[in-house]
Structure of HIRAN domain-containing protein:
Amino acid sequence: MSDEAVPDLRGYEDTDLGVEIPALNRGEAWLVSECAGLQFYAYGRRDDLTGERIMPRLGDRLHLVRVPDNQHDANAVEVWWRNAHQIGHLPRNAAGDVAPLLDAGAAARAYVIGEGDGEAWSLRLIVVGPAAEPLYAAHIERVAYRATLPVRNEKRERRLRRRAERFADQLQARRVARVAQAVETLLAVPFEPDLPDVGTEVDVDHVARLLACSRSTVARLAKRVGIVVGRYTWRVPLTREFDAEIRAWCRAPRSRLDPDSVRAPRIGCESPRVFRRPFGLAQAAKAWTSAWA
């Protein structure tokens, strides 16, 4: 069968098949099939009376003859040309659908749509009429399926992309949660900073880098021991009290983790352009819940 709802019969207008063009354009049922058994019958041989080679031409009318008493197939449908030469029969699968309708009185008109070259399975025929309805209906269903395939593929691709994005967010949420858990664990672990000797002056920004904290935190620690750190104060004396205050702060648990401060790298294959944005703990929690929605 072709991939179209109506067979392309351009060039058949002046043949026997040409009379079927209006009916086919109106939606008459049809099917195209190979002719089986060509090598066992008269196809390709010489006519005993005329000496002409028995080769039906494009558009020639064929006749379908039911043979219910066939010993090999009760659905056998023979194919005859000019009512004088049996050239083959319908393949078993096509005959199985056509034969019951022929027995019920449904019409079936057959024509040559591919004349072949004298070899087996080379001739193709078209059957027009109600007897072709089952195979025609299946063919139209396939045509409709192929016609809507691009739209369905696009919808499926969007659905799979959304599913992949949700799963990528879910994986990222797990990574962020693991990083946050590790950071919270490390925040509770005391550490000893490598401070300069007591009595020397220290750079406020240098101390902030040593403690992995902000400049304002260093200023707050200094204020507790009476050292004022102003906006433009760059260096302060490291007194014994200031040193002790810093070390006590390092031994104490840190403050509560800021969820938006947690970052986790994305794996390359999980990084479409739409996700090239900061991904903190708050976004991770949202992604975790939406991934299972």
The beta strands are 30-34, 61-66, 77-81, 85-89, 109-114, 124-128, 201-203, 235-237. Residues 23 and 54 are 29 Å apart (CA to CA). The first strand starts at residue 30 and ends at 34.
